[in-house]
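Below: protein 1.
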Amino acid sequence: MSEFKDIIEANFREYRKQFQSAGLIIVASLILIGLFTAVYTVQAEMQGVVLRFGKFITTVEPGLRFKFPFGIDRVQMVPVRRQLKQEFGFGTQGASNNSQYSSPREWEHEKNMVTGDLNAASVEWIVQYRINDPRQFLFNVREPGNTLRAVSESVMREVVGDRTVDEVITIGRQEIEVVVLQRLQELVNKYEMGLSIDQVQLKDVNPPQPVRASFNEVNQA
């Protein structure tokens, strides 16, 4: 009976050692995971937006940073020090922009416009902008890149529709750029999108291809 009791006690001690060892391993693993998920780096051109359980907490500047681990805090990186660009009516090869159209058919639809004197114009342009308020950019508007694109196209069509084809294609290009930038910034501010519009630049502006030769002949006469 005594031998049986000794065997049970020995087994119990062995199980307890194993349990303690497993517990130490689990605790050590949790500590390592916690340290790994608590430390992060914000790159020089970025600003980090800290969310706690999905709710905005603060923004952080570049450098080595710490947050609550295990998914309690989540950080979204926003490129606040980078100039961003959207192209309209064309696409630069190799450019990567989630809101950028990639199909020539979509480019054609985007750039074909009607002027104030009921003529057609093919208008290509770019919008350069920066993110100046990461919180507004992330949370005030759904899909801000696509929203900016839609607003930019709407403003350009409105401004082109207020001018003659000659103003659009030749003498009024600079004024169009200024007016579009001003109106676009006003709408961006109104919707609190967290963006600053740096530049609107007209690129190729011509009559549509089917009537381009006739238009050039008239201008050269």
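Below: protein 2.
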Amino acid sequence: MQIQNRITLASSSPRRKALLEEAGLTFSICPADIDEDIRKGESPREHTIRLAEEKAQVVAKKTNDSWIIGADTIVFIDNQILGKPSDINEARKMLNLLSGRYHTVVTAFCILNVSTGKTVKKAVESKVKIKKLADKEIEDYLKTGEPLDKAGAYAVQGVGNFMIEEIGGSYTNVVGLPMEELKDALKKVGIVKM
């Protein structure tokens, strides 16, 4: 993969960083500090696309790079959007809600051309089934600290992998970036040549 322009990832997520590195991209990192609250009437797709774009826009003001990649991931179940839990009690509630059930993981990305302001945005959905979790499994997992900075309070690529029964769709989407779709978009806008 040959990179044609300078890229900044508008995220502090080590998972997103690792996915882009595995894809062979060279990039800098500049986290975006934005309000991630859900707006009334906003669908999961609308929410993640809006946040991905806002992250890219905020970072565009702080860098000289040509392109910014913003991204956001949420978990969706029972008409509820689950972002990152605010504390261990909220993480426990999320894990109990997900236990033994299917849910949807929505990750959106926004590729922003800093010089033109043009964007390419996409949201990707994956279905995940969590096995039925015993209270002790939840408590032991909470003690790892892993759930606290993850949408839905679990990390598919980490210790939380023990609870995954099934994934329908993109695994990397569940991790934090739908890499096939992102690579296609990067090629389409000419950021990379493969």
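The first helix runs from residue 14 to 22.
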